[in-house]
Specification:
16 helices
Amino acid sequence: MEVSWIWIPISIFAALMQSVRTAAQKTLNQSLSTMGTTYVRSLFGMPPLIVFLGVAIACTGLGFPEFNPRFLLHTAVAALTQVLATALLIYMFRLKNFAIGTMLTKSDLIMTALMGTLLFSEHLSGLGWVAMVIVVCGVILMLVGKMGTVAFRASGETLSGLLFGRPAQVALLCAFLFALSYLFLRQATLDLGPQHHFMWRAGWTVVLATGLQTICLGIWLAIREPTVFGQMWQAKGIGSFIGLTSALGSIGWYSAFALQNASYVRAVGQIEAVFTLAVSWLYFHEKITLMELMGIVVTVAGVLMFRLV
């Protein structure tokens, strides 16, 4: 029996895995191209995803889904927008430090909510909107706190540069593509029939989407960057770690999308910003300010409100 709120801890787990994976990708990107770094998560993540699908089939007793053109189309669009957004996110590492670059993409929550309500089948309650606004305020506090650090001032960035410069433009495009991917992934899981178990729907969607990314991006790299495959093999240690954390994160996201509106899932997923600060502090040795701590408290409070939605 599916618990109505189980999507909340699943989303939090997915956000944690995504933060860890993104931090590892930043490290790998220092020795590997942007598209090569993007490809690692798909290539090394496929085996764990196939295992998850096998477990889902065994546990639910469901087999192959019926041929469904809408499911194939929505999954394909989601896969394309997701890989493009991930590539932009990694490219942004070269424009900003880790925490700021990640937080600039948080406008994806508002984009997901607006596009989901206007163009998709998303239905948001009044309390849901309030919770999302609180989460956004928390993320903004964390961003403002990061802007005030010594590292930020030393970089020579100004507020206008942050809001209208190239990093902001890349971040907004990245957020837009991520928002589209969330909405199409949510729709793809519904195309398989909401009456079926969420693990089965999530399993087929994540394997198909990641499989398409692996094949298409692999062909692109074979033509444009054939030497990257040897480099990936040399970095198979960190590549395997990225693949595993990416697979666990994807399983979490897809499972949550199969259970709840993409807007709500992404709102709870904003707790990733808290994990990002933790990773920045522990791994990249970036300082955390009082304003950021206040943002953490507000963000967590907003996330907890979704238990009441």
